[in-house]
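Can't paste images in this forum, so I'm doing it all in text. The chain is below; anyone willing to post the predicted structure tokens underneath?
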Amino acid sequence: MDIRTFPLGPLETNCYVATAGNAAIAVDVGGPPEAVAHYLKEKGCSLEAVLVTHLHCDHLYGVGELARTCGATVFAGAADAPLLDTELGKGGLMGLPLVPPFDWEPLGPGELLLLGQPCRVLATPGHSPGSLSFYFPKAGAVFVGDLLFYRSIGRTDFEGGDYDALIASVRESIFTLPPDTAVYSGHGPATTVGDEMRHNPFFSEFAR
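Text version of the structure:
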């Protein structure tokens, strides 16, 4: 699997495009997707799905356009649906623009087949009620949205946030993955499970 990062939108949300052969997925298209569409065309890849880690507006601005352009289905956590009726989901919060409407299918924890390999959908609430993480065991990669950052965690003071749930999600769903698993966050640099277990100040009990 090849993973390319595109910081998009007003908050430079990390949009990830993962490709394997001529298949591709996009994760969290947070702004105008022209660069993503150009990249897919250049590589000759067909977009299988748009995965959304959570339904906050800064992760959504380019979702509808890219999905329509490429004929892909959008998947997001079912429990986040109510957020689309708030400024946090539909836009307008803190002066941010409105999100263009898009169709999507609700998704729960389980397993999908994407890019010809298993993708384990993990329920990781805390930053939002329906936050999902997408783990690809074969590639050793997990896309976590705003659950976990390099040396930090996602905020929990937005509507539907829950600090205790977020901490539990990281401990139980992310820190149980192999230590060399690459962690791709919604903002900032990538990290690894083992590095965050050792150095993230919110989880000092794992430090060695």
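The two ends are 31 Å apart (CA to CA). Helices lie at 34-43, 63-70, 87-90, 163-174, 193-199.
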